Amino acid sequence: MVQTMSTRSLEALMKPLGSFPLLGERDSLKLALDLMTKHRLGISCFVDSENQLIAVLSDGDLRRLLLSHQSPLPALLVSDAIEFAQKNPTSISVSSDINHARELMRTREVSDLPVISPTKGLIGLLHIHDID
Fold this sequence. Notes:
alpha/beta, CBS-domain, three-stranded mixed sheet, 23% strand, 6 helices, disordered N terminus, globular, 34% helix
């Protein structure tokens, strides 16, 4: 039986750990930018010591930061990146289906969804291009 996109699991379509920017609470904004550039994604995910998602930083957050802060750029780059991140990020359960992911991305106007497992914490990232 051939699986269609709508019946494939999120786990089959998501980017696994290691293939997107993953940061800790004390990592710098420069590291976040470096990892976003390396992975060619507009998002960094922050996890705590137990791999629980605690925040995300998007390229939109970075644009708003640069427009709103009067600090010199070198001072911003050494700051803890999480200071500028969204602390209540939109995420999706690994048990959700693709249609729910599409709808969530549409209504929240996001291109990336961290994928959460109830037992493992953050396990992946679903990018809009991976499901279209």
